[in-house]
Amino acid sequence: MNDLLMSEYFATPNSLATFTRNRHHIRVLQTKDPELLLYLVRQQPATLNSLLHLTFLDRLPYDFVERRLNEASAIKMTFTNFKALVSTLDKATNLRQLTINETCFWSKDKDRFLPLTAHLPAATLERLHISFDQPGQPIDANDSQLVNKLNQAILNCASHPPLIALKELRISVDTEHISIPRMAFLARCGSLERVRLDDVDDWFMRLMPSYFRRFCPRLMSLHLTERFGLEDEVIALMLRSSVSGWKELRLSRLTEFGLAFEALMESAATLEILAIDHWERLDK
Questions:
Q1: Sign of dihedral through CA atoms 232, 217, 246, 169?
Q2: Count of domains for the chain
Q3: What is the pLDDT of residues 74-124, one digit of tens each?
Q4: Which domain holds residue 126?
Q5: Is residue 1 domain-resident?
Q6: Do residues 206 and 178 lie in contact, with contact meaning Cβ atoms separated by under 8 Å?
Q7: Residue 49 in domain
Q8: Burial of residue 42 (number of CB atoms within 10 Å: 0-12, 13-18, 19+)
């Protein structure tokens, strides 16, 4: 089911009939085509009741969409992706794992990421991987306007059912800054135990630990990868985002035996797994 395009693979009645005849076998679906999802929603909705894993990654990179946002084809594409994913999530009531990217988060020219999260299957979703590629602005953690905007978004998200089954969250960032108000959905993640952060920036690291402590009290596993060279101070802040202490830590590096190392040692009593790719001070 990888990379199926309706126009290419189901152009004949026989090919479509074969797919339809075997639809009840689908448990894991990986696609880049919103038309496939819309076909299942409209013509074969019962199939989605058995779907356990969905990976929906668009065929075009988001920077292409951004450059052409005013063109009709790009607007239609982003709208179709959002519509297809929302419609699928409403039908996939047993979904356990979901992987999505930036091109799913737009309806025409509006950021619809938080409204999209309202459609996540709250009772069954266990693993969520989100790839962000929407350029945000550099963040001042003391900016009251930003904090107020985030807090208002949190209030809005809190009105939706908690994601009681969600244990594992992975956030990947393909741009320099992330739009922090999008993180308001953490208000629904009280059962979260494991988080992986790929290439988040310093400002994310400064602002989010307090929200992890507030909304995700069961966090016990952190996997942090980086390409921007995070400061020792902000790594220390993130290492203090577990309420009960980490059981597992996987880090790209520690630059020195400073604040981050001190924060790491605060979990010495609970830590069971520690993996650090580079201890730079030891290398020296």
A1: negative
A2: 1
A3: 545 556 899 999 999 999 999 999 999 988 998 877 889 999 999 999 999
A4: 6-283
A5: no
A6: no
A7: yes
A8: exposed
